[in-house]
Amino acid sequence: MKVSQAVGQTIARMGATHVFGVVGSGNFRATNAVLETPGPDGRRPEFTATRHEMGAACMADAYTRATGKLSVVTVHQGCGLSNALTGIGEAVKAHTPLLIISGDTPGGDYGSNFWIDQDTVIEGMGAIAERLHSPQRAVTDTIRAITRAQIQRVPVVLSMPLDIQEAELPAEQEQLLTTVAPPELPA
Q: pTM (2 decimals)?
């Protein structure tokens, strides 16, 4: 199993009910995996394609505020993420727990036309920057990002470098994936 598939399955199994976004090469596989995986209620998350990433972030913010359910924003790396910043900023001010998944350039690929310092940009908006650090931590990193969003009631951006997404998931992380469940939240 590829890391991108495991990330998507983790997100669905942790209770995401709706995904809003613009799909590109940096988020395509993870987004598809979210949509193909039944959540804890047995239903697959729904997808709303948007014309612009800011619209996706605003829709996810409104959906989560109205329903109290975990929603996800999915964007392409670099310019896709920067387009979503206005909506992410509004969600920060409203203390809306959102998960934003974004492709990211492979480590050290500063020559890519999609490269921006995503962590610095996100932290500057007041959101939390998380990332996939390695295939050996991919499921663990995804669980941490979702749990932080829901417990701290803040948008969390999970940056997913393309090289890590394409790697094979180690057996230990695949085993962890079988136990994934929504976090227990305080009343």
A: 0.94
